[in-house]
């Protein structure tokens, strides 16, 4: 298996968290099941080999290039054959700088790229497929993103919502919605509308996801800490509160989740 990850250029670092790619071949007659959990980020993925399979409504892989919106629930995918993909992981607010589309319309869906960026999609896919290296794919993707950036000013909420995301990150998902709205100079209703438009989910749901991702990050840093310590370190009221969030977002209790494999946070990576 070949895995690569790289940060974006300075011109795109406010919007793109990183690029990553994987090349792997599953032996004939075998398949691997992967559980996808909400990570608070939006992702543009180019499938250059066989596509995964999902039976969950809205999560199909009918196209080779898909944008995954904000997730509020887990789902499973089955991987078989030759897996080869190149992916652009956007910050929560990052994609909103490239489109005027309300990102709430992408919620819990894998949406074909041409639904958002109608121009040059086929050419971009072709160039990425023909690229000889990970570095070359990044260069192609960055040229494309920079062209869109020059043409599109994004939505009017960007700067204020970017600041809100930073405050949420600093609080590890514990900031109150009223505080965030006040800091952004919005009424609560205005803030919830602007946030949903720019992030793709409600502030309440996003805070829940960030708390969950912080719990994964904290467990990854200190694998021996028990669940009681983790509960209060991450700002949950009690273990029942943490268990309820884990069940909704991953389909497992914290104990089951950490027994399944290594704790890892995409959001706080």
TrEMBL record:
Transmembrane segments: none annotated. It comes from the Bacteria. Keywords: DNA-binding, Transcription, Transcription regulation. The keyword Metal-binding does not apply. SUPFAM superfamilies: Homeodomain-like (SSF46689). SMART domains: HTH_ARAC. Gene3D superfamilies: Homeodomain-like. Residues 155-260 form the HTH araC/xylS-type domain. GO terms for molecular function: DNA-binding transcription factor activity; sequence-specific DNA binding. PANTHER family: HTH-TYPE TRANSCRIPTIONAL ACTIVATOR RHAS, HTH-TYPE TRANSCRIPTIONAL ACTIVATOR RHAS-RELATED. This is AraC family transcriptional regulator. It comes from Maribellus luteus.
């Amino acid at each position: 298996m070949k895995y690569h990850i790289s940060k974006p250029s300075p011109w795109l670092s406010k919007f793109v968290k990183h690029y990553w790619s994987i090349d792997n071949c599953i032996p004939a007659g075998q398949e691997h099941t992967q559980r996808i959990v909400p990570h608070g980020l939006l992702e543009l993925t180019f499938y250059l080999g066989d596509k995964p399979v999902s039976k969950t409504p809205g999560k199909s892989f009918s196209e080779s290039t898909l944008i995954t919106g904000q997730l509020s629930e887990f789902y499973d995918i089955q991987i078989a054959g030759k897996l080869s993909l190149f992916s652009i992981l956007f910050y929560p607010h990052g994609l909103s700088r490239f489109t005027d589309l309300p990102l709430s319309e992408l919620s819990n869906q894998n949406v074909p790229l041409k639904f958002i960026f109608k121009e040059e999609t086929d050419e971009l896919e072709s160039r990425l497929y023909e690229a000889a290296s990970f570095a070359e794919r990044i260069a192609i993707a960055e040229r494309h993103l920079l062209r869109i950036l020059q043409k599109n000013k994004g939505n009017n909420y960007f700067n204020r919502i970017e600041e809100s995301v930073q405050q949420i990150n600093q609080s590890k998902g514990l900031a109150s919605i009223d505080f965030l709205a006040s800091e952004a100079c919005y009424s609560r209703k205005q803030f919830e509308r602007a946030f949903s438009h720019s992030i793709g989910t409600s502030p309440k749901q996003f805070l829940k996801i960030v708390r969950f991702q912080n719990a994964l990050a904290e467990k990854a840093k200190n694998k021996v800490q028990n669940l009681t310590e983790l509960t209060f370190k991450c700002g949950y009221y009690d273990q029942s509160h943490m268990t309820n969030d884990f069940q909704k977002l991953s389909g497992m209790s914290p104990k089951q989740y950490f027994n399944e494999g290594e704790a890892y946070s995409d959001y706080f990576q």
